[in-house]
């Protein structure tokens, strides 16, 4: 019950960073009963009326607890993890427990989870869009929009999704939500160079970002993982 299922895909985009992808159904089957959830999590689960949403919540939060125990090499049992929340609702491991940072993202029936130590981390996963002329989403800067407008329609939607995934992962690492800083995150390098590794500076801090195309159950997804600078010890 405390092991990550063998069907989970585990990636290491950076040294010391672990990313897991797993289907909601597989995670739910592994964690049926949700006995390792806290009382607060169980209460929230009971308030969720939509069946698929309840299933995803139970699967993701049980998987998170098991992933933390695995990453911490068994320092705590899954049910012993406690969490606190930042100003914008970003969860974190409670003070006094192993200093592991984590983040979650969902797309369709895929759960993506990232874990590391001593560095803020964010992850975003989005389905690859079809070849349609999508409107510019919130948070696209004028320069980014100008670069996107130069692209043919069949490439524009894909690049919008890559830019959004890049920005979202960084925003989640910062824990700021989608606010004015979203526009300040410069995604122009994503549009100007075809690479997998990038960096961006926000509020004086530099974030390393890894972009990848991920295959999951026959579909292609964009995934971005962003990590901040190593936190000062003490």
From TrEMBL:
Top-level taxon of the source organism: Bacteria
The keyword tRNA processing is annotated on this UniProt entry: no
Keyword set, alphabetical order: Transferase
Name of this chain's protein: Holo-(Acyl carrier protein) synthase 2
A Pfam family: ACPS
Record domain 4'-phosphopantetheinyl transferase: where: 121-224
Statement: the UniProt record of this protein carries the keyword Transit peptide: no
Molecular function via GO: holo-[acyl-carrier-protein] synthase activity; magnesium ion binding
GO cellular component: cytosol
TM region positions: none
Species: Hartmannibacter diazotrophicus
Biological process according to GO: lysine biosynthetic process via aminoadipic acid
Leader sequence segment: none
Family indicated by similarity: Belongs to the P-Pant transferase superfamily. Gsp/Sfp/HetI/AcpT family.
């Amino acid at each position: 019950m405390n092991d990550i299922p063998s069907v989970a895909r585990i990636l290491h985009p950076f040294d010391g960073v672990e990313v897991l992808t797993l289907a909601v159904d597989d995670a739910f089957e592994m964690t049926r009963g949700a006995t390792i959830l806290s009382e607060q999590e169980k209460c929230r689960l009971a308030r969720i009326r939509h069946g698929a949403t309840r299933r995803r919540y139970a699967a993701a939060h049980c998987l998170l607890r098991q992933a933390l125990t695995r990453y911490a090499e068994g320092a705590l049992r899954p049910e012993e993890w406690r969490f606190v929340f930042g100003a914008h609702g970003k969860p974190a491991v409670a003070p006094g427990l192993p200093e592991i940072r984590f983040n979650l993202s969902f797309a369709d029936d895929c759960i993506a989870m990232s874990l590391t130590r001593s560095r803020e981390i964010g992850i975003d996963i989005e389905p690859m869009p079809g070849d349609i002329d999508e409107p510019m989403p919130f948070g696209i800067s004028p320069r980014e929009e100008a670069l996107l407008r130069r692209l043919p329609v069949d490439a524009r939607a894909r690049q919008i999704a890559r830019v959004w995934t890049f920005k979202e992962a960084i925003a989640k690492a910062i824990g700021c939500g989608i606010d004015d800083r979203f526009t300040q995150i410069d995604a122009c390098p994503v549009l100007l160079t075809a690479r997998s590794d990038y960096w961006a500076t926000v509020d004086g801090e530099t974030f390393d970002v890894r972009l990848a195309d991920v295959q999951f159950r026959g579909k292609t997804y964009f995934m971005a993982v962003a990590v901040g600078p190593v936190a000062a010890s003490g």
